[in-house]
């Protein structure tokens, strides 16, 4: 059954085309250690407050023990009123939220309505369930729509839970402690932002996979305030020299221009009826 | 997340649970706890809803893998809604239970979810059906399910009487859930109870600290 929002119905079953490509890539390493996929060993958190939803995330992306990206954006745009934090495999969270965002935009254009958070959650749940946990995406979806302020979590196997506050990722236990202690219903904006900041900070301090800066995204009826970074890490290093080079640093010794000969092979004309 | 998936058979979030349903004179009481865990070690949610409304007077309790159960009940809701539009009448409870049974039986290799379906319909009145993991469907006047149910078989066998009043049945269900949650580590949180009768549906939520206490508490 095709949903009006989805461009085309997904093919039934799973698509494992990439397994043969992965096997070929592994062959290149000749039995050595293959690089692990980039994970976002992360702390993400979300809180529902009086006027909307606050989402927070750290900005570290790791590949095994190396920090691959110090300024990774983990709060993804889904719709003008819906944003999503992602933990787990970086590529999976990126692509899943991208696909979701495209589908919802098509739906908005077709139906003339703003998407509801439950709809985004439903689509995500269907997609992740179909892939039986192979897509390693732990997502926190937050948004404001005509029915109110909502915060949902979607697990990699497709389980959904609606909650007033929540944290996910490898630093979730540390962040959850802060949230459990400090959460109150109907908080004000500044209280909520401070609570989320503290929660992410706890995750950064207590978890090796989380670190660097803190991003905050505030979603209300009036609009979205995406503050990136909300708090910069005090452990930022200062590079002594720059890696950028001025134009002209590498001298040009000779220049040779070769004209490419192109010939017209086929020309066809189609009359178009215009009104 | 992965570090918490130990050698539990259920992948991802499981509802290691206590669910029950019992018929009384004029309706059914359906109840569950509200704990969801990962690998039997980490409580991922204290407030999960395991009593899902699949139609106006029909509810389903879920046990097993949360993702599988939610996916199956979503499909079941759609089928039932479509069925009731086609028939121009609310579906029978047996129809709801059969829809779940078909889904569980046809996909028994991939799914890990069990259900208790209960409700009221005009033809047969209050009924309770259980759909187990492999897709067996049987009708019983009272039934319990989930990991916590093992601790209350004795209580249910001794205390259940057919044609109780609504208040007696509610008290029976609350006691049973409290006893199970007290002994089973993967059941807990609040007790969700739903009373379905011809006139309507009533939700009762008993917070953990208001549950009945027994001799050793």
TrEMBL record, chain A:
Organism: Perca flavescens (American yellow perch)
Keyword Nucleotide-binding: no
Molecular function via GO: threonine-type endopeptidase activity
Principal subcellular localization: cytoplasm
Gene3D superfamilies: Glutamine Phosphoribosylpyrophosphate, subunit 1, domain 1
Assembly behavior: Component of the proteasome complex.
Domain Proteasome beta subunit C-terminal intervals: 239-268
Similarity comment: Belongs to the peptidase T1B family.
The protein's name in its UniProt record: Proteasome subunit beta
Reactions mediated catalytically: Cleavage of peptide bonds with very broad specificity
Purpose: The proteasome is a multicatalytic proteinase complex which is characterized by its ability to cleave peptides with Arg, Phe, Tyr, Leu, and Glu adjacent to the leaving group at neutral or slightly basic pH. The proteasome has an ATP-dependent proteolytic activity. This subunit is involved in antigen processing to generate class I binding peptides. Component of the proteasome, a multicatalytic proteinase complex which is characterized by its ability to cleave peptides with Arg, Phe, Tyr, Leu, and Glu adjacent to the leaving group at neutral or slightly basic pH. The proteasome has an ATP-dependent proteolytic activity.
Keyword vocabulary terms for this entry: Cytoplasm, Hydrolase, Nucleus, Protease, Proteasome, Threonine protease
SUPFAM superfamilies for the chain: N-terminal nucleophile aminohydrolases (Ntn hydrolases)
CDD domains associated with the record: proteasome_beta_type_7 (cd03763)
Cross-referenced PANTHER family: METALLOPROTEASE TLDD, PROTEASOME SUBUNIT BETA
Active-site annotation: 42 (nucleophile)
Pfam families the UniProt entry points to: Pr_beta_C (PF12465), Proteasome (PF00227)
Domain of life: Eukaryota
Automatic annotation (TrEMBL), chain B:
Classification via Pfam families: Proteasome
Chief site of localization: nucleus
Broadest EC class assigned to this enzyme: hydrolase
Matches recorded under Gene3D superfamilies: Glutamine Phosphoribosylpyrophosphate, subunit 1, domain 1
Active site annotation, chain numbering: 17
Enzyme Commission number(s) of this protein: 3.4.25.1
Described purpose of this protein according to its UniProt entry: The proteasome is a multicatalytic proteinase complex which is characterized by its ability to cleave peptides with Arg, Phe, Tyr, Leu, and Glu adjacent to the leaving group at neutral or slightly basic pH. The proteasome has an ATP-dependent proteolytic activity. This subunit is involved in antigen processing to generate class I binding peptides.
Name recorded for this polypeptide: proteasome endopeptidase complex
Organism: Perca flavescens (American yellow perch)
